[in-house]
Specification:
single chain, 12 helices, binds protoporphyrin IX containing FE
Length: 257
């Protein structure tokens, strides 16, 4: 019977031929390759969902953003859980295959930077580290011209009559915080309940990525101690990223209630 074939539809043969450890005999390198590839696949899905959420919010349909945000947050949780698999790698097992990886590093994950750009960051890699590929840089430049999650949320808030202007000045920020505080104090109507839920899903995403940063930093310290990272940043650099938040105003609004 003709029909769709599992392996050709999902390109399983190609997928299973994409793992090429560099060091012969280093048993644990397969884990290292597979887990990075799995992360990149999940990053792809997160971007797919967050881009859809932005489109819905920009179009004034916050209810349409709820399902993709919910899914993205569930995947964020998987990113954290996967670190436990990586922690089965011992430092001495890692050292067996680590040197030939230099200067490759998660620092050069274009998709991770794209998730950061959607969160409102500039997507820059730290000074002195290897740059992203030309392709990744072009993609980040394209994304830099698009709405972020937060600007799309503000667009939806304005569509429902809230005074949530774009812009970085203290005055504009205060107006947004007043609007958010009003929403958080009263979200009893169906429209306000949806907007409030979207804000909390944003916070779930922000919190999950912050927890991933923290856990990834601990995992890295466990693997390499205070050695320089393969990309040149090391655990000291990772420590400096833990306090990063995508949506500081959604954290600040807690103080205004
Ligand atoms: C043995 C495993 C790992 C170790 C020891 C490790 C260590 C590090 C270190 C030290 C850095 C800072 C840059 C540098 O010095 O290279 C870094 C950055 C990063 N790593 Fe890992 N990592 C590991 C696995 C992973 C995995 C599986 C991912 C998933 C994609 C990942 C994603 C990232 C990302 C996105 C950054 C950039 C973070 C930022 O700039 O905020 N790492 N890693």
């Amino acid at each position: 019977m003709a029909g769709t074939d599992y392996s050709s539809y999902l390109r399983i043969d190609e997928l299973l031929n994409l793992q090429h450890p560099l060091t012969e005999g280093a048993h644990d390198e397969m884990l290292f390759v597979v887990i990075h590839q799995a992360y990149e696949l999940w990053f792809k899905l997160i971007l797919h969902e967050l881009d859809y959420a932005v489109t819905e919010l920009e179009a004034g349909r916050p209810q349409g953003a709820m399902a993709p945000l919910h899914r993205a947050v569930r995947v964020d949780e998987l990113l954290i859980a996967q670190l436990r698999v990586l922690e089965t790698l011992t430092p001495e097992g890692f050292l067996e295959f680590r040197d030939p990886l230099k200067p490759a590093s998660g620092l050069q994950s274009g998709q991770f930077r794209a998730i950061e750009v959607l969160g409102g960051f500039d997507g820059a890699t730290p000074a002195g580290t290897s740059p992203l590929s030309d392709h990744d840089q072009a993609e980040l430049r394209r994304r830099a011209g698009l709405p972020t999650l937060y600007s799309a949320l503000c667009a939806s808030l304005r569509g429902y009559g809230f005074d949530a202007p774009d812009g970085n000045s203290a005055e504009l920020r205060e107006r947004r915080l007043d609007a958010l505080a009003a929403l958080y104090r009263d979200h009893a109507t169906p429209e306000r309940a949806v907007l409030h839920r979207v804000c909390e899903l944003f916070l779930d995403h922000d919190e999950a990525i912050a927890r991933w940063r923290f856990h990834h930093t601990l995992m890295a310290a466990r693997e390499i101690g205070s050695r320089p990272g393969t990309g040149g940043g090391g655990v000291a650099y990772l420590d400096s990223t833990i306090a990063r938040r995508f949506f500081p105003e959604l954290w600040e609004v807690r103080n205004r209630l």
